[in-house]
């Protein structure tokens, strides 16, 4: 795949994002504010998932291992 097609593909994806989120009708400063807020929320969700999902998986593993009689636990 050549560079031009990749660039056109990403331009098309960005255009679709602007149309779906109605950013195309916003002024430039409103677009930057909206994108900053959206990026911040996305970053917070990713960080929260990175921190808390392993803890919940470990707790679920310990819970179900006690129920089904598996006596191995994951060490910290």
TrEMBL record:
Has UniProt tagged this entry with the keyword Endoplasmic reticulum?
A: yes
The membrane spanning regions, by residue number, are 35-57
Q: Which UniProt keywords apply?
A: Endoplasmic reticulum, Lipid metabolism, Membrane, Sphingolipid metabolism, Transmembrane, Transmembrane helix
Entry GO MF terms: serine C-palmitoyltransferase activity
Q: Give Gene Ontology CC terms.
A: endoplasmic reticulum membrane; serine palmitoyltransferase complex
Q: Specify the protein's topology with respect to the membrane.
A: Multi-pass membrane protein
InterPro entries per UniProt: Ser_palmitoyltrfase_ssu-like (IPR024512)
Q: Which family does it belong to?
A: Belongs to the SPTSS family. SPTSSB subfamily.
How this chain assembles, per its entry, is: Component of the serine palmitoyltransferase (SPT) complex, which is composed of SPTLC1, SPTLC2 or SPTLC3 and SPTSSA or SPTSSB. The heterodimer consisting of SPTLC1 and SPTLC2/SPTLC3 forms the catalytic core of the enzyme, while SPTSSA or SPTSSB subunits determine substrate specificity. SPT also interacts with ORMDL proteins, especially ORMDL3, which negatively regulate SPT activity in the presence of ceramides.
Spell out the protein name for this chain: Serine palmitoyltransferase small subunit B
Q: Which organism is it from?
A: Loxodonta africana
């Amino acid at each position: 795949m050549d560079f031009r097609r990749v660039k056109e593909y990403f331009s098309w994806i960005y255009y679709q994002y602007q149309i779906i989120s109605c950013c195309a009708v916003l002024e430039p400063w409103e677009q930057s504010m909206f994108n900053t807020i959206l990026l911040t929320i996305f970053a917070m969700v990713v960080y929260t998932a990175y921190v808390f999902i392993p803890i919940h998986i470990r707790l679920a593993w310990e819970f179900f291992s006690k129920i089904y009689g598996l006596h191995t636990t994951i060490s910290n």
